[in-house]
């Protein structure tokens, strides 16, 4: 994944016209020493995604790309990412996208309970 700085996705630009989705381009965050790049194979859309896309849940930010029940395959990774991750493995991804890595919950390997966790669609 060296040299890849952006990704394309389908998302919503305008809450009032949320059903009319468009192609969006997102800049990738800087890769850390522990990263795995995942090619998405499938992604489910549930009613909480519709609430987010339509602005029914909140209208804090847009554009937004929804979908948080993701299945993909590891297509690139750092050498430090192993042995938990193996090139080519298929995996599932939940809605949490980032944790602080420093609080007691993160250091106890329960990052999903981090108080500073980010979820999909957060700026």
Automatic annotation (TrEMBL):
Pfam families: ADH_N. It comes from the Eukaryota. Its cofactor is Zn(2+). Keywords: Metal-binding, Oxidoreductase, Zinc. GO terms for cellular component: cytoplasm. Residues 36-121 form the Alcohol dehydrogenase-like N-terminal domain. One of its GO terms (molecular function) is alcohol dehydrogenase (NAD+) activity. InterPro entries: ADH-like_N (IPR013154), GroES-like_sf (IPR011032). This is DEKNAAC103886. It comes from Brettanomyces naardenensis (Yeast).
């Amino acid at each position: 994944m060296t040299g890849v700085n952006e990704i394309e996705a389908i998302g919503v630009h305008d809450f009032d016209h949320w059903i009319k989705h468009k192609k969006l381009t997102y800049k990738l965050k800087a890769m850390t020493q522990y990263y795995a790049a995942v090619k998405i194979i499938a992604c489910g859309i549930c009613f909480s995604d519709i609430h987010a896309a339509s602005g029914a849940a909140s209208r804090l930010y847009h554009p937004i790309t929804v979908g948080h029940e993701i299945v993909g395959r590891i297509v690139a990774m750092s050498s430090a990412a192993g042995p938990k991750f193996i090139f080519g493995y298929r995996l599932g991804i939940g809605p949490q996208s980032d944790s602080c890595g420093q609080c007691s919950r993160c250091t106890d390997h329960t990052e999903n309970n981090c108080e500073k966790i980010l979820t999909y669609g957060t700026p």
